[in-house]
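Usage

Read records sequentially. Each one opens with the input sequence:
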Amino acid sequence: MNYAVIMAGGTGKRLWPLSRQKRPKQVLELLNGRTLLSSCFERLRPIFDIRNIIVLTNAGYSDVVRENLPGLPFNNVIAEPAVRDTAGAIGLVATILSKYDPEATIAVVTADQIIKPPEVLQEAIKDALSFINDYPDNMITFGIQPTFASTSLGYIKYSDGREYPNCKNKVYTVDAFREKPDEKTAKEYLATGQYFWNSGMFVWKARTILAHLKKFLPEATEPLAKIQMAWDSPNQQQTLQEYFVKLPKISVDYAVMEKVDKVNAIKLDCRWLDMGSFAALADIISSDKDNNIVVAGQSELLGCKNSIIATEDK
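and closes with the structure output:
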């Protein structure tokens, strides 16, 4: 069966003090009264049964996430008791799903991205699910068509775009993952026409990502096995608390993606923004005549120029 996992554990420190310890950026009403999390959820609804959409978040955010997604089943919010980066988080959800569905196919997306039009991502996810179900030992990542030489994003080097049955998008071979480059290197990447921005979104079989974690991050094997065994038992929470903190703190890119073969990419040719800072608001909200960006129900600005004003107060 196909599942979607929304990664919603980020604190959004670069949006503090608007983003706070108990109210992270993904539940801030920054998009005409809507949140990043609810917008992400709505992008997935045309593809996945609501019972198959899972949100992975920090324990301190679980209540506010449930408030933001009132239609989501209670147990579909999985709370991490500690911060262990994306390898641990993905290992956790793959472990849980594979206990009940050994053939689970998982689309991993993040809650803090703006993607327009959403249909581009939806079509790409459908193609990726179809491809992975046909070629279960492979993995898919989504590459963003770059529009400038960014030094704040990772890159994916790709080649050999091919067409596959039941896929409207071409599927490219991933040759390498590159970390955030300096400006000169970023311009070189852009000039070759062989690089995507790394979106941090993936599709794979639960058993495939778990096999790679076992091979390349063996320290995670025992904690994940203990958590899986105890899941849905009276000892679930105690075991999660005890063993999740034993998972290595490392991203899935470092732990797995940079080391494995059979990684492919589908291009997202769309408007894409990783909502990481106040400056990013300027990319999604039109400025007024004095170049002010305003996110507020009501506002009256006196002598303000070149400013960003944001509040959730009505």
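Summary fields computed downstream for this record:
- The mean pLDDT is 86.
- Residues 34 and 165 are 37 Å apart (CA to CA).
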